[in-house]
Write a structure and sequence with these properties.
Elements (H helix, E strand, L loop, with lengths): L5 H10 L2 H14 L1 H13 L3 H18 L5 H22 L2 H17 L8 H19 L3 H13 L5
Length: about 160
């Protein structure tokens, strides 16, 4: 079955009554956890991005604390879980500043935790992939915003 375009869906939604749109939203929320998280963000947290960042950082801290460092394998699996959640939080916000803040925070947490990047090729690739994403997000920011993040990037040895 082929899905309709966003434009077609938007047009159809505009023809529906308020109650019908609400019913559709509730059905979407019940269908998938990601939909529920996105709608929660849009309804309750979109107006206060700083509070959202703090909540996400606390969640990332908890995920970092759960990482077992007994072997490179368990460390890798734990970091992959953190990155999955990180990407989900970033996707909910869709603001470049939030993306940059969270990716920098993730890389700082790896440095602070003293996770050995040389213990596994996958761990080092995961870290350097995040560095590359930071560079891309940084390049898309306005010059004034770039100046605000320059110090953080210098600490991670990304920008000289």
């Amino acid at each position: 079955m082929k899905s309709h375009t966003v434009h077609e869906i938007q047009k159809e939604l505009s023809t529906l009554e308020k109650k019908d749109v609400l019913d559709l939203c509730m059905r979407l929320v019940k269908h998938k956890k990601e939909n529920k998280e996105l709608l929660s963000y849009l309804l309750f947290e979109v107006n206060d991005e700083k509070e959202y960042l703090e909540k996400v950082k606390k969640a990332l801290d908890e995920l970092f604390n759960e990482i077992s460092r007994k072997s490179a394998y368990t460390t890798k699996k734990g970091l992959q879980k953190v990155v999955r959640n990180l990407n989900k939080f970033i996707k909910n916000s869709s603001k470049k500043e939030t993306e940059l803040d969270l990716r920098i925070y993730f890389c700082k947490k790896i440095k602070v935790a003293r996770i050995n990047l040389d213990s596994s090729k996958i761990i080092s690739n995961l870290y350097y992939r995040e560095i590359d994403k930071i560079k891309v997000a940084f390049s898309k920011l306005h010059e004034d915003m770039q100046y605000d993040y320059k110090e953080d990037l210098e600490k991670l040895a990304i920008v000289q």
